[in-house]
């Protein structure tokens, strides 16, 4: 019996904590793709993911990774502007325990960061903002227990007439939401809170799902991807902890591989799962329309703060997040698309949401 029926609506989908699914057998791992036979690119320090500003697994070449190093002038200006966007005005905004705790927002796009406990969300957020401490890190799984909102980017130009009476103009162009990790000691109410946010938040522009390179897909990961498909939320997958990825050796000591091998395998596994989920949805959540076939790879813990924080794959991730949120990264600056572009995700009314008793 499958963990969650593919036809279950987002409004009825229920999250199962780790203790509830411990009796469920682990899914069969997909076959491994052809191993990478050469380093992802030529250049200095190629043995570490810290050497690259962008690390991407493309669907057209699933067994290898496409990388960009800082010496490449083609995208240097764009990635620099993307880094400035996230770094120059980053600020903690608020915490929310439930959906009703989120302040009213009808102008500023939001992107939510999702992932299992100890997948590295806080480290990822600190690297995204180029600043240590904006999100607290902890070696203890389940450290984050609330949804925490962070504002990034310059203040948008919004006419006063467009604002509700008494509402101050926003100070940031984008809101990034950090969420509690699922899996280890997570509560069943986690799923209710997240599903409600995904289905009802009108300014939500997409989700970034963090998956560790150290592990295979867990049942909770599959549940989350199915929930995003049900809610028709644009999705970008980021593989974290590339520097800790190890390919297991065979019984005779053979096999093995590099961090690039393991990350390419992980990306192929994720892409296969996304395609499986797509077949069971009745929405427009499709490859390169609802979810990105490009899987991004990072090692945020290796990224340096400040001007050089585009390293370890963070440059490519920043550009992908901005694109998903409706911003255009140009050689000269980051430009927000017209605000009248409507949100195309499915909106679920509160009355239609079936809550767990």
UniProtKB/TrEMBL annotation:
As one GO molecular function, the record gives: metal ion binding
Which residues are in the EngB-type G domain?
Answer: 107-327
Q: Which Gene Ontology cellular component terms are annotated? A: mitochondrion
Region entry Disordered, spans: 1-49
Compositional bias of kind Polar residues? 1-10
Keyword line: GTP-binding, Magnesium, Metal-binding, Nucleotide-binding
Note the InterPro entries from the entry. Answer: EngB_GTPase, G_ENGB_dom, GTP-bd, P-loop_NTPase
Under what name is this protein listed? EngB-type G domain-containing protein
